[in-house]
Design brief:
Elements (H helix, E strand, L loop, with lengths): L2 E6 L6 H20 L7 E6 L2 E7 L12 H14 L2 E7 L6 H11 L5 E6 L4 H6 L11 E3 L8 H11 L14 E5 L6 H9 L5 E6 L5 E8 L2 E8 H4 L9 H14 L2 E7 L6 H12 L3 E7 L11 H12 L7 E3 L8 H16 L4 H14 L12 E6 L6 E6 L7 H14 L8 E6 L1
Parallel strand pairs: 1-3, 1-4, 4-5, 5-6, 7-10, 7-11, 11-12, 12-13, 15-16
Antiparallel strand pairs: 2-3, 8-9, 9-10, 14-15
Helix pairs in contact: 2-3, 2-8, 8-9, 12-13
The structure holds guanosine-5'-diphosphate (GDP).
Protein name: GTPase Der
Keywords: GTP-binding, Hydrolase, Nucleotide-binding, Repeat, Ribosome biogenesis
Family: Belongs to the TRAFAC class TrmE-Era-EngA-EngB-Septin-like GTPase superfamily. EngA (Der) GTPase family.
C-alpha cells in the first residue's frame, strides 16, 4: 500500500502549486487514459521509483480568504491522523504568521515525520530570510519555489527517506478485501453491524500492512472476505464532520488498501458531491465499486422508483456507469445479502482473464464493423489485441498508427468489452500501442 502524504498550511502559501507539481507527471498519464479530470485534491506521485499518494488539505477549504483558524486546526489534526508524512508549507515572503504558529504547535506534538517546507525561496537573500522559520520549533527546513520547482528535488528526497518502513506482510490467503466507505451518517457502521451481527462472527482482527489499517476476517453465509477498516474510520470523529474533506480523507487509506469499495449513500439525501469524490477516489485507484443506496426503508416508493433513482445516480457517475447499484436498508436488513453477492461478483469480475484467442475473435469483428475514423486521410488498422496480465483489467490494442486512435474510439472499445464480458463495477484501462 502506498504511503500517504498530506500537505498542510494556511491558505495561499502555495500548497496547491506544490501539490500540482508533485502529481503532474502521473496525472498526465492517468488522464490520457481515462480522459476525465478528477478530484483535484488527491493524486498519485512517484519519486525514485517510490509511489505515494498526496492529499492537498487546502483544496477542500472553500473561500480560502475567510478560513477560520479552527478550520485549519481541524484539517491539520485530520492530516496527522491519516497521513504517514506531513509537509507543512510556509511562505518566506510573509514570514511567520499567527496561523503558522498554530499549525506548528499542533505539529510539534506529532510523532510522524513532518517536513517544514519554506516556499518562494528563489534567491540568496530569501534563503537568509528563511532562517526565521527555525523559530517554529520544528527543526531543519527545506527551501523551495513551487512556481519554478527549484528545491523540490531535495524535498522529495527527504520525503522518501521519511516514509516509515512498512512491515512486509506475508500473504497467506487471497481473501478479497472490501472497504465500506461513504459520507458520515450514510449508515456504514449500521451496515457492517447488520452483516457481522455479534462479535462471535468476527473471526480475527489481523493488523494490516500499516499500523492503522485493520482487516477483519468475515466468514458468514458462505462468504469469506476481509473487511478493511481504519483507525480513522472506526473512531467517531470528535469534530462535526460537515466538510467534504473529512469523508474523503478518511476514505483514502481504506480505499487504497481494499480490492472492492462498498460505497454507502443515504437514500434520503441522494448522490452528493462527497459521494462523487469518494467514487472517483475508488475509480482512480482502479478498485472495484458497488453502490448501496441505504435507508431505502425511508423512501416513499410512490414518488421514486429504483429505476428513476438509479438513472439519477448514473448521470453522476459518467462515464464510468457500469456499476452495480443496490437499494438496501441496514435497519430492516433488506437486500444485505444481495449486496454482498454483488460485491463478491465485482471481485470476480475484476479478477477475470479473457483468453487472447476469444478476445481477438470478438474484438476484431467489433473493430471491423466500426473501424477507427480516418484522420488526415490515414486509416488506422488494428490487427491484434489482448488482455494484459495485470491485477486490474487492462487491454492493449496494437495499431499501425496508435496516435490517431482517440478517446471516443477507446470508449467504444471499452463499451464493447463490457457488452460481451461482465466487468460491472470494475474500471478498465485501454491502451493503443504500435504493433
Ligand atoms: P455511519 O456514520 O456511516 O457509520 O452511519 P451510522 O451507521 O452511524 O448511521 C447513521 C444513522 O442512520 C443512525 O442513526 C442509524 O440508525 C441510521 N441508519 C443507518 N442505516 C439505516 C437504514 O437503513 N434505515 C434507517 N431508517 N436508518 C438507518
Amino acid at each position: 500500500m502506498n504511503n500517504i502524504v498530506a500537505i498542510v498550511g494556511r491558505p495561499n502559501v502555495g500548497k496547491s502549486t506544490l501539490f500540482n507539481r508533485l502529481i503532474q507527471r502521473r496525472e498526465a498519464i492517468v488522464d490520457s487514459v481515462s480522459g476525465v479530470t478528477r478530484d483535484r485534491n488527491y493524486g498519485k506521485s512517484e519519486w525514485n521509483g517510490k509511489e505515494f499518494s498526496v492529499i492537498d488539505t487546502g483544496g477542500y477549504v472553500r473561500g480560502s480568504d475567510d478560513v477560520f483558524e479552527g478550520e485549519i486546526r481541524k484539517q491539520v489534526e485530520l492530516a496527522i491522523d491519516e497521513a504517514d508524512v506531513i509537509i507543512f508549507v510556509v511562505d518566506v515572503e510573509e514570514g511567520i504568521t499567527p496561523m503558522d504558529e498554530t499549525v506548528a504547535k499542533l505539529l510539534r506534538k506529532v510523532t510522524k515525520p513532518v517536513l517544514l517546507a519554506v516556499n518562494k525561496v528563489d534567491n540568496a537573500m530569501r534563503e537568509k530570510d528563511a532562517i526565521e522559520f527555525y523559530n517554529l520549533g520544528l527543526g531543519d527546513y527545506f527551501t523551495f519555489a513551487s512556481i519554478s520547482g527549484s528545491g523540490t528535488g531535495d524535498l522529495l528526497d527527504a520525503l522518501i527517506d521519511a516514509f516509515p518502513e512498512k512491515p512486509v506482510v506475508e500473504v497467506t490467503e487471497e481473501l478479497p478485501r472490501f472497504a465500506v466507505v461513504g459520507r458520515p451518517n450514510a449508515g456504514k457502521s449500521s451496515f457492517i453491524n447488520a452483516l457481522i451481527g455479534q462479535d462471535r462472527y468476527i473471526v480475527t482482527d489481523i493488523a494490516g500492512t500499516t499500523r492503522d489499517a485493520i482487516d477483519t476476517k468475515f466468514d458468514r453465509f458462505g462468504f469469506e472476505f476481509n473487511l478493511v477498516d481504519t483507525a480513522g474510520i472506526r473512531r467517531k470523529a470528535k469534530v462535526k464532520e460537515d466538510l467534504e474533506f473529512y469523508s474523503v480523507m478518511r476514505s483514502v487509506r481504506a480505499i487504497e488498501h481494499a480490492d472492492i469499495c462498498i460505497l454507502v449513500i443515504d437514500a434520503t439525501r441522494g448522490f452528493e458531491g462527497q459521494d462523487q469524490s469518494i467514487f472517483w477516489l475508488a475509480e482512480k485507484n482502479r478498485k472495484g465499486v458497488v453502490i448501496l443506496v441505504n435507508k431505502w426503508d425511508l423512501v416513499e416508493k410512490d414518488t421514486m422508483s429504483t429505476r428513476d433513482y438509479e438513472e439519477k445516480i448514473k448521470k453522476e457517475l459518467m462515464p464510468f456507469t457500469d456499476v452495480p447499484i443496490l437499494f438496501v436498508s441496514a435497519l430492516t436488513k433488506q437486500r444485505l445479502l444481495k449486496a454482498l453477492e454483488a460485491t463478491v461478483q465485482v471481485f470476480e469480475n475484476r479478477k477475470q482473464r479473457i483468453a487472447t484467442s476469444k478476445f481477438n475473435e470478438y474484438m476484431l469483428k467489433v473493430i471491423e464493423a466500426y473501424p477507427p475514423p480516418a484522420t488526415k486521410g490515414k486509416y488506422v488498422k488494428i490487427k491484434y489485441c489482448m488482455q494484459l496480465p495485470t491485477l486490474t483489467p487492462q487491454f492493449v490494442f496494437f495499431a499501425n498508427m496508435p496516435q490517431y486512435v482517440k478517446e471516443p474510439y477507446k470508449r467504444y472499445l471499452e463499451n464493447k468489452i463490457r457488452e460481451n464480458w461482465d466487468f460491472a463495477g470494475v474500471p478498465i484501462d485501454i491502451y493503443i500501442r504500435e504493433k
